[in-house]
Amino acid sequence: MNEARIALVTGANKGIGYAIAAGLGARGHRVGVGARDEARREDAVGKLRAAGVDAFGVALDVTSRSSVAEAAELVESEAGRLDVLVNNAGVPGEMGPGWDQDPTTLDLDVVRAVVETNVLGVIQVTNAMLPLLRRSASPRVVNISSSVGSLTLQADPNIDIGPVMAAYAPSKTYLNAVTVQYARRLAGTGILINAACPGLVATDFTGFHGPRTPEQGAATAIRLATLPDGGPSGSFFDDNGTIPW
Ligand SMILES: NC(=O)c1ccc[n+]([C@@H]2O[C@H](COP(=O)([O-])OP(=O)(O)OC[C@H]3O[C@@H](n4cnc5c(N)ncnc54)[C@H](OP(=O)(O)O)[C@@H]3O)[C@@H](O)[C@H]2O)c1
Questions:
Q1: Less Cβ around it within 10 Å: N or C end of the chain?
Q2: Interval 33-51: pLDDT, tens
């Protein structure tokens, strides 16, 4: 029997997360639409179903321990296991007028809020879903990162990596580092975990600035979510291949 693979995408009600959910659905996955707002979640589930995707809603605020635990229970009762987890939910944090975050004047509450969602949220969701992922024949975890989290690119004065961003960019560096630790810990289990950069995508996140569509931004995540057994783990990719740490 060729059973559908089960995926959960966090922050799937809009933007890149929605495009990942749609793309995985189009590839035959049954997709859990993780979203914290009920109306936005149900709207997204409705749109996905209208497009022929086997979608179900998963109430999920990645920063809430109880919400994450309830989401894992819901996925277990809906599907009994999880084959693909895409940790997509993310926030930029408050920005200055040049869409920057100046380290010399940074409000620590901005840092806390960004790390809470972009890093701690990913750890919290991943650990809650791990028992369900371990029931999959070919489990995959994709963490949506960003090339602005690359220390190599940030430290190269010859590369234009955008404005100074002292909360958001390091949150993705931290996420990348955590991804490597998971890959080390899960080596040999069959669980492949990688980080993906979507490129600069026109979404709410960027004030709809950026040359790429959400569908283009979703492509690398979909590739990593559908890696064959024995594929890479603990790496950082965009459409062009690996990104330096
Ligand atoms: N856009 C880009 O150019 C770009 C570039 C590199 C990386 N990324 C990364 O790509 C990911 C998606 O970004 P996007 O551009 O698609 O942004 P977006 O359109 O603003 O979508 C962000 C999603 O995350 C959700 N979210 C935020 N906090 C959450 C929480 N605590 N619990 C659950 N969901 C939460 C949002 O839900 P609500 O609707 O409820 O707010 C929304 O669904 C992020 O991780 C971002 O860092 C984006």
A1: N
A2: 999 999 999 999 999 999 9
Q: Phi-psi region for residue 88, left (φ > 0), alpha (ψ -120 to 50) or beta?
A: alpha
Q: Which residues of the chain have pLDDT under 50?
A: 1
Question: For residue 1, is it within any domain?
Answer: no
Q: How many domains does the chain have?
A: 1
- Measured in Å, residue 197 CA sits from the centre of ligand 1 at 13
Residue 129 confidence (pLDDT): 99
Domain assignment of residue 95, yes or no: yes
Q: Where are the beta strands (DSSP E) in 1-158?
A: 6-9, 30-35, 54-59, 84-87, 140-144
Q: What is the C-alpha to C-alpha distance for residues 74 and 15, in angstroms, rounded to an integer?
A: 24
- The pLDDT value given to residue 2: 62
Instruction: Name which residue sits closest to atom 47 of ligand 1, judged by CA.
Output: 90
